[in-house]
Amino acid sequence: MALITKRVYGAEDVLPKDSYKWQFLEKLMREEAQSFGFKEIRTPVFEHTELFRRGVGDTTDVVQKEMYTFDTKGGTSITLRPEGTAGAARALLEHALYNDGLPVKAYYFVSCYRYEKKQANRYREFHQFGLEAYGTASPAADAEMICAAQSIFDRLDIGERLTLELNSIGCPDCRAKYYEALKKYFEGYKDKLCDTCLSRLERNPMRILDCKSPICSEIAKDAPVVLDYICDDCREHFESVKRLLDSSGVKYKINPRIVRGLDYYTRTVFEFVTDELGAQGTVCGGGRYDGLIEELGGQHMPSLGFALGMERLLALLGAAEKTIPDFDKCGLYIATMGDKAQEKAFELVKQVRSYSVRAETDIVGRSLRAQMKYADKIGAEYSMVLGDDEIERNKAEIKNMTTGKKSEISLDKDFGEGFIRVKIENEDNPGACFFTKEK
Ligand code: HAM
Predict the structure, then answer these.
(1) Do 25 and 137 share a structural domain?
(2) Which of these, 17, 54, 260, 268, has the minimum number of CB atoms within 10 Å of its CB?
(3) Beta carbon of 288 within 6 Å of any ligand 1 atom
(4) What is the pTM assigned to this prediction?
(5) Do 130 and 238 share a structural domain?
């Protein structure tokens, strides 16, 4: 029979055989975020369209070309979030989270939706892990934010494969002078710019710099750079961020051409890029957004953050041939012969599972041979055969499926504990992996 439908173009399934990789990364990121004092925030997958128009900016590619926007049956315009920052900022204001003391530090895992041209490592549904800190203008916050991202990459042993590119795009004051210079430059190419960029010329010429059209991006290559126009305060802020990064041992490269594709940024912007993922080499991006909270109707609250793309991070780990440990592995498979053995096996797997170890027994009704084949297929670490004889003796042998070594174990109420003891004794290096905090 033909399939009823396929998945939507640009969206991916995470299959059971791969989900442990996501879970591993999520666990590691939660630990890192918590160790820097961030707490999780979960916001809805959709928001009022106006939030992104005002927050992300209505001259950005994201808002002008890429949003999944629709009217509800009640006539409200809703948009699937193209990123996580605007929704988190909306929640901060709606729940007055700033009353609990500043800075407010939040982290999130979000699915995002952008109607972009699909390419390798560019999707229409993708996932981000992000950190946001609200209510601090200090350059120390910029440095700490960058250190948090760097710490995740170091823990994954890919810090050396990413380059941190850093820039300052100034404040609205210095931006005015820069806009004039950009306007002057792009006016010379009026006949070549795409229609969207022509309209940006008046309203927001900086957005021409991240237009994806090949002609506009070629023209943009020689445009003036913002770092030449920033004011003394912004320059001093930038110098402090650099000094703090230097003292933390975080390496960076100044890239005066980074402007980021979203309108809310001010001052420090940064990206972690790699040349191992082809054209979509930006794994992480972020920066300061001192005006966003005010733009959304709140008081002045300097803030900042970053988000990293989970799919790109996984692709980079794959390219770097890093093996992610599969803690989902079946610890024990109990093969059974007869009804009595099946009943006993149900009791025994329950005991092992109470130690959070995966234990399985036959629920299909297979022959003993087929059960053992299945244990092999799922990569069970240990197996055990249970028949009338074992039940009578109240003892059975568990077999290490890799080494073939057998150990006798009693089937009484301490079976679970006994199994864990054998497992630990037999492991060369239990729980060891290269993703350790100490590394
Ligand atoms: P962004 O640079 O648009 O920033 O996205 C952050 C990351 O999400 C990118 O570096 C990339 O890894 C991933 N990403 C973006 N688009 C796609 C796509 N189409 N397919 C796969 N991965 C993608 C933001 O979204 C800001 N909200 C970051 C931020 C947080 N700034 C301050 N706080």
Answers:
(1) yes
(2) 17
(3) no
(4) 0.92
(5) yes
Assign residue 339 the CATH number of its domain.
3.40.50.800
β-pairing, 163-168 vs 266-273, is: antiparallel
Three-state secondary structure readout of 294-359: HHCCCCCCCEEEEEEEHHHHHHHHHHCCCCCCCCCCCCEEEEECCHHHHHHHHHHHHHHHCCCCCE
5 contacts: CB under 8 Å, gap ≥ 6: none
Q: Is the pLDDT of residue 130 over 80?
A: yes
288 C-alpha to ligand 1 centroid (Å): 14
Backbone angles phi, psi at 73, to 5 degrees: -60, -25
Residues 70 and 38 in one domain: yes
Order of strands, sheet of 253-254, starting from the edge strand that comes earlier in the sequence: 39-40, 104-113, 125-134, 303-309, 282-288, 266-273, 163-168, 253-254
pLDDT 10s digits, 259-311: 999 999 999 999 999 999 998 999 999 999 999 999 999 999 999 999 999 99
Domain boundary among 260, 293, 319: 319
Cα of 252 vs its chain's centroid, Å:
21
Pocket perturbation via mutation, ligand 1, pick of 121, 152, 312, 314 by most ligand atoms within 8 A of CB? 312
Give residue 137's domain range. Answer: 19-171+230-319
Q: Which atom of ligand 1 is nearest to the CA of 308?
A: 7
Quick: pLDDT tens for 239-260. 999 999 999 999 999 999 999 9
pLDDT (average), residues 85-91: 98
Q: What is the CATH number of the domain that holds 304?
A: 3.30.930.10
**CA 147 – CA 145 distance, rounded (Å):** 5
Ligand 1 contact, 307 CB (< 6 A): yes
- 6 alpha carbon – ligand 1 mean position (Å): 26
Q: Is 284 in the pocket of ligand 1 (CB under 6 A)?
A: yes
